[in-house]
Write a structure and sequence with these properties.
Layout: H1 2-12, H2 15-33, H3 39-46, H4 55-80, H5 92-100, H6 104-129, H7 133-139, H8 142-154, H9 156-159, H10 163-181, E1 184-185, E2 192-193, H11 207-226, H12 236-241, H13 243-252, H14 254-269, H15 275-287, H16 293-296, H17 305-328, H18 334-345, H19 352-355, H20 359-389, H21 395-414, H22 418-436, H23 441-464, H24 472-501
Antiparallel strand pairs: 1-2
Helix pairs in contact: 1-20, 2-4, 2-20, 3-4, 3-18, 4-5, 4-6, 4-17, 4-18, 4-20, 5-6, 6-13, 6-14, 6-17, 6-20, 8-23, 8-24, 10-23, 11-21, 11-22, 14-15, 14-17, 15-17, 21-22
């Protein structure tokens, strides 16, 4: 194994594979900054270019591009409140709030450092877990996948505002998200549901236009109303100087970073959940790290832990998603399904051969993830002052640029003008939710997990009737879901008791 690990490093450091990796990193850098295009779409567009490449060159190019998209997507999310990727929306809640109070440098420093640590943990998981992952993947059938979705939905309690009223609003917003997830064709019966007689809605609501509208439009309206820059006139020097403080924040919360990275890795290993789930679950876990109700109120208003958690999970999931893809040919995400196509184009078959005959090539994928992320973080660190300085540009100059990015991001998700209409509608919904003090995060979580939960519940009931409820992993996950819901309630009760005794 160690010899193959060393051979994998030597393979990727040859001039041609390394050059292709740098080209991939450059493409991924700009794709991440532009909202809506997405790593999966870019992977599909790049596949025709690998026909004449050697396998190590092809995967250096494809994986180098894909493994940095989420990192640079965080930059757009933090600076402008526009999700650079569908998987980087959770970081907006606290990252953009920090940018608005002049702490863009600190938020970017924390996000880049957390994403680098997350990528290293994901790569380490890929290197170490291949021999032992088979029992884990095979343990998770449809009942366990359904319960995992329920655990994710239970984090709505953590994402909601403090108090009974805030929690009720959170669960109502989550319920609305689950209802929106039901728009489109019933996956079992094929019956159209809530499509308003339009063919566009038969495939359901696409996540990108909804996210862009829900988070970006309210920020643009707020920027226009305030008539200032994003940072509200905070001196440019103070904005950029905070980057080192953000790096220190990650190491102050090092165990939180590790835990969130492991959450991302686990979600990546589990096929069918995807990167958006990883970020929101990591964000929910980060909110639970607050010890007092007063501390919890900081989340959503610029708590750096709300940047660290999603940042670490978003990159660690890539290493996790590669594990079932390489070991069993079961893609861990949409992007991995496209990468699987790359394997077949090059005449490689995922499975035992990748762990024996092509083990050095497998380890070259690990090194690609590590090197691509290190290079990206170094480049971003060099550009940090200029990036953070964008939050001091006058609002009337920035708004047209952000609007162009918003509409490009919405349109490129499906290349349909109806996507722009969806963005505007959800922009209105998002603005009303902000004005009324309703949390937007539970709505997104309900939308992301609603369809997953519905599909796996149907399969579980059809195959096992009620017997699936007694499966050990299902029972264990049910206990975890109950604990996730009860923990914020317990924290609030403990906080009230402390204040009474004080």
């Amino acid at each position: 194994m160690l010899e193959a690990l060393w051979e994998g490093l030597l393979l990727i450091l040859q001039w041609k594979p390394f050059a292709f990796m740098l080209v991939g990193v450059l493409v991924g850098f700009w794709v991440g900054l532009l909202p809506g295009i997405g790593g999966a779409t870019t992977l599909a567009l790049m596949l025709p270019f690998i026909y004449t490449m050697q396998p190590v060159e092809a995967f250096a190019f494809l994986l180098g591009m894909h493994s940095v998209v989420a990192t640079t997507g965080d930059i757009t999310s933090i600076l402008f409140g526009v999700p650079g990727e569908a998987t980087t929306a959770a970081i907006i809640l606290d990252g953009h709030a920090m940018a608005k109070r002049g702490e863009a440098g600190r938020a970017l420093g924390a996000a880049l450092t957390a994403s680098l640590i997350g990528a290293l943990i994901g790569a380490a998981a890929l290197a170490l877990a291949i021999p032992i992952v088979r029992p884990l993947v095979l343990t998770f059938g449809s009942p366990e996948m359904f319960m995992l979705a329920i655990v994710g939905l239970a984090f709505i309690a953590s994402l909601s505002a403090q108090g009974a009223r805030g929690m009720v609003r959170g669960f109502l917003a989550g319920g609305l998200g689950m209802m929106l997830a039901m728009v489109g064709q019933d996956p079992q019966a094929g019956v159209a549901r809530f499509t308003l007689g339009t063919l566009y809605l038969w495939q359901g609501l696409d996540l990108v236009p909804v996210l862009v509208g829900l988070f970006a439009i309210p920020e643009i309206i707020d920027l226009a109303v305030r008539g200032t820059s994003i940072a509200g006139g905070v001196p440019a020097g103070r904005i950029s100087r905070g980057a080192l403080e953000g790096v220190k924040d990650v190491f102050r919360n090092f165990f939180l970073t590790i835990r969130c990275a492991l959450i991302g890795t686990f979600i990546g290993i589990t096929p069918g959940l995807g990167g958006a789930v990883a970020q929101w679950m990591a964000y929910g876990h980060a909110t639970q790290s607050a010890r007092t109700p007063e501390e919890r109120k900081g989340f959503g208003a610029g708590d750096v832990r709300g940047v660290i958690g999603p940042g670490a999970a978003c990159n660690s999931k890539e290493g996790g998603a590669l594990i079932p893809t390489i070991a069993f040919g079961v893609p861990g995400s949409t992007s991995m399904a496209i990468l699987l196509g790359g394997f077949f184009l090059l005449g490689l078959v995922p499975g035992p051969e990748m762990l024996t005959k092509h083990l050095a090539l497998t380890f070259s994928l690990v090194w690609t993830i590590v090197l691509a992320n290190v290079i990206t973080v170094v480049v971003c660190a060099l550009l940090l002052n200029r990036l953070a300085g964008l939050t001091n540009v006058a609002g009337h100059r920035l708004i047209p640029v952000i609007l162009v990015l918003v509409f490009i991001g919405s349109f490129t998700s499906n290349s349909q003008y109806a996507d722009i209409l969806v963005t505007l509608v959800f922009g209105g919904v998002g603005y009303l939710m902000v004005v009324a003090g309703w949390p937007r995060a539970p709505l997104v979580l309900g939308l992301v997990l609603g369809k997953i939960a519905e599909n796996y519940l149907y399969i579980s009931v059809a195959r096992y009737d009620a017997a699936w409820l007694a499966r050990p992993v299902v029972v264990a996950l049910l206990v975890v879901a109950a604990a996730v819901v009860c923990y914020p309630v317990f924290q609030a009760w403990r906080g009230r008791r402390r204040s009474q005794h004080a």
